[in-house]
Amino acid sequence: MKLQLFFALRYLFSHKDHNxxxxxxxxxxxxxxxxxxALVCVLSGYNGFQQLxxxxxxxxxxxxxxxxxxxxxxxxxxxxxERVKSMDFVRVACDVMEENALIRSKERQTMVxxxxxxxxxxxxxxxxxxxxxxxxxxxxxEERYMVIGGALANQIxxxxxxxxxxxxxxxxxxxxxxVANPEKAFSEKQLFLMGIYGTNQLEIDSxxxxxxxxxxxxxxxxxxxxxxxxxxxLVEGADVAAAQRTIVETLGxxxxxxxxxxxxxxxxxxMKVEKWISFLILIFILLIAVFNxxxxxxxxxxxxxxxxxxxxxxxxxQGFVRQVFLLEGWLISVFGTLIGVTMGLLLCxxxxxxxxxxxNSGDEGGFVVDAYPICVKGSDVLxxxxxxxxxxxxxxxxxxxxxxxEDK
Length: 408
Known about the structure:
The chain is α+β, with helices and mostly antiparallel strands. The protein has helices at residues 2-13, 19-57, 79-85, 121-124, 150-156, 202-205, 213-220, 240-251, 260-263, 265-290, 292-303, 305-313, 318-354, 378-401, 403-407, and strands at 64-68, 74-75, 90-105, 108-117, 131-134, 139-140, 143-149, 166-171, 186-197, 208-212, 226-227, 229-234, 255-258. It has 15 helices and 13 strands.
C-alpha cells in the first residue's frame, strides 16, 4: 500500500496537462473544507446553547426528583422514602409540595405554581445565586414569606417593601365545589414578599412562587406528611446514573425517578433533534461537494492512460492501479476534511476565548450571554471526521470501479 500511496500523492501534487483537473480538485477540496468547517461550528454551537440552558435550569433542578407514577401525593415518612434519604450518596433531601394557585396583587392576578419547600431547599439548589432582590427566606420563627420570579413580579406589579401582602387562592383538594357557595371550596391566604429571583428564563421566572412547605400544605388542605415530590442533591462526584438505578430498585415501580435531563425531557429531545437535523443537512451539502471527486478522477484517469499502460507493462495488477486512483480521490477528501476541521476548531476556540460573534448589539441586551456560546465535543469531531472520510472513500470508488473495463 505504501507504493500505491506514493503514486497517489505524486499524481495529486504533480502538474497536469489539463489545468481543469487541478481546478476541479481544488474546488472539491474547498467544498469539503467549508462543509466540515460548518459542521464543527454548528454542532459546537448547539452544544453551547444546550450547556448554557442546562446551567440556567440547574438553579432550580435537583440532581434527582422523585414523584408518583400514579396519583399526586405520597407520605414522606414511607419506609422506602426514608431509606432513600439515608443513602450514602444523598447530600440533601428536600420535601416539596407543589400545586397551582391564583396569585393576586391589588387589581392584578395570574396563575402560578406554588412550590412549598422545606428549609434545606437553598442547600439543594443554587437559588441563592440568582436572587435579584431580597433574600431566599421563607420562614422566620412563626412568620411566613414568599419568593417569586422577576417576570412574575412585573406581571402582577409586585415588589419588596410593599405595604400590602400578596394573596393566594387555591382549591381545596378534598372539598367538592358547592354551586350555592363556591367560596368554601377555595382557601385564601396572604404573604409578604421577601425576595425576587431571576434566571433570564421566562418559563421559570414567571412560573414559581416559593413558600414554606407547611404553608403550602395548609393552603391546599394536605396533611403534615404529604408531599408531591422529593428532591435530592447528591454528594460531589457521585455517579448520577448509578444513584438513579439504586433509588429505582429501592422504591419499586410506584415511583418515577428522574435525573436533570429527564425533568425537561421534551426540551432536551427537541434540542437533540434540531442538532442532528442540521447535521444531516450539512452532510448532504458535504456529499454534493465530494461528488466533484468523480469528475476529477475521471479526467485524471483519461489523462494518465499512458502511465497506466506503463505500470501494467512493469507488472502492476489491475487492483494495484485501482488502488492508486482510489487513494488519489480519497486524499482530496482527507486534505479537505483535515483543513476544514482544523479551521472549525480554530474558529470555535476564538469564539470561546474572545466572543467574536455577539448576541447583544448594544450595551444592554436581552440575552443571558453577550456572545454565542460554544462547546466543542470530541465525539462530534470524531463523527464529522469519520462521516467525511467514509463518504470520500465511497465516492472515490465509483470512477475506479470501471477502470479495468475501459482500458482492456
